[in-house]
Amino acid sequence: MTEHDDALYLAHIDEAATRIERSAARRGRDALTTDEDLRDATIYRLQTLAESTQRLSPQLKASHPEIPWDDIAGFRNRAVHGYLGVNLDIVWDIVERDLPALARVARVELALSKAREGRGHDLGDDLSLGL
């Protein structure tokens, strides 16, 4: 797995998290319960986001032990294979409590990746940054 692959999956995580933040998180827990389309979209986005986390490199995951990678995989498996038994309380906890931390990691890692890509193009820029 390359850094490029990580960037692809991190971008997907960021995009899915942003969409969940704009929809479910903004509308609230009651809307998640009462709006079927919102509920389905949120669960689907969490599934695909979780799938992308499983494709991240072991090195990237190891650098962020604060993220419960195994729990994310477990949720994905439950949502995909036990979709009739998905607990909305758990989904809401993920949206409210867990998703922001994962989104921050994705955004920070994407910014670092972009900064690394920019290096070497102009040595003067690196020197001015003290690198």
Condensed summary:
The protein is an all-alpha fold and 131 residues long. 80% of the residues lie in helices and 0% in strands. It has helices spanning 3-27, 29-34, 36-54, 58-62, 69-81, 88-118, 123-128.
Structural notes for this entry:
With 131 residues, the chain is mainly alpha-helical. The chain has one domain (3-128). Helices cover 80% and strands 0% of the residues. It has helices at residues 3-27, 29-34, 36-54, 58-62, 69-81, 88-118, 123-128. Helix 1 (3-27) runs antiparallel to helix 3 (36-54). The longest helix is centred in the last third of the chain and has 31 residues, at 88-118. The radius of gyration is 17 Å and the shape is globular. Mean pLDDT is 87; it is low at 120-131.
List the helices and strands and how they pair.
Elements: H1 3-27, H2 29-34, H3 36-54, H4 58-62, H5 69-81, H6 88-118, H7 123-128
